[in-house]
Design a protein that fits this description.
Layout (H helix, E strand, L loop, with lengths): L1 H22 L14 H24 L9 H8 L8 E7 L4 E7 L7 E6 L4 E5 L6 E5 L2 H13 L13 E14 L7 H6 L5 E6 L11 E7 L3 E9 L3
Parallel strand pairs: 5-7, 6-9
Antiparallel strand pairs: 1-2, 2-3, 3-4, 4-5, 6-7, 8-9
Helix pairs in contact: 1-2
Keywords: Disulfide bond, Membrane, Transmembrane, Transmembrane helix
Protein name: BRICHOS domain containing 5
InterPro entries: BRICHOS_dom, Gastrokine
Length: 236
């Protein structure tokens, strides 16, 4: 009976060592003799299992780790702080067909004034820190903007861009050598630019090219459109 049990344990041990022999050819098994004791067979079996575990751990340790997903970088971008929005109010005179938008940029206590004068047909910009006004003739889109401001009639309501705001840029070329005679403009422009020189400006046409920008102002309208109006001087 002891020899029968030893033979059975020997066959089981060979079956357990077969995968290890395929992975590591240098590991060889020796024939089992009937004289082995149960303690010796158990010790050999534990040694074989420990060796197989070490080999499997080594193979797993050298496996390349999967690349980190790019979602983490995208999440950091989405969590970045938003740009402070300017404070903006609009004053509409329906009877005179005039609207004045005052924009106070973020981190500033001085306001721009943008005048849409439907009577004289002008749009006038007065920056807070420059002793000058910039004037250009109203176009069809300017009249549409004025009509929208008149229709909404929200005179003192502050506006801020919504999540679905469309943004655009507009370039105005300042004609520094062409000062406007105040007598040629309406009373609203004269009142806004009292004792301040007024210069003609015109919208830039053609493909965009490099220009020396003088100053910019962001204006948002009730139609969820924000326009960054930038001025630059044309050479004399």
């Amino acid at each position: 009976m002891p020899s029968l049990n030893s033979g059975l344990l020997c066959r089981e041990l060979r079956a357990a060592l077969a995968p290890l022999t395929a992975i590591c050819p240098q590991v060889k098994t020796k024939p089992c003799h009937g004289g082995w004791g149960a303690a010796g067979l158990l010790l050999l079996l534990l040694l074989a299992l420990a060796t197989a575990g070490a080999v499997a751990g080594g193979l797993l340790g050298f496996a390349p780790s999967p690349p980190k997903p790019l979602l983490q970088m995208l999440r950091l971008t989405l969590l970045s702080p938003s740009v402070p929005q300017p404070n903006q109010t609009a004053q509409v005179d329906v009877a005179q067909n005039v609207a004045t938008i005052r924009v106070t940029p973020a981190q500033s206590n001085r306001s721009w004034a943008v005048l849409f004068d439907g009577q004289s047909g002008h749009v006038c910009y007065r920056p807070p820190e420059h002793q000058a006004c910039f004037l250009h003739l109203m176009e069809a889109r300017d009249r549409e903007t004025l009509q929208l401001l008149v229709n909404t009639s929200e005179a003192q309501e502050s506006r801020s861009p919504s999540q679905h705001t469309h943004r655009a840029q507009e370039l105005l070329a300042v004609l520094g050598s062409h000062e406007v005679d105040p007598a040629q403009v309406g009373a609203s422009v004269q009142h806004l630019c009292a004792k301040t020189p007024i210069y003609w400006a015109r919208r830039a046409e053609g493909p965009p090219r490099q220009r020396l920008i003088y100053l910019c102002i962001d204006i948002c309208f009730p139609s969820n459109i924000c326009i960054s109006v930038c001025f630059y001087y044309l050479p004399d």
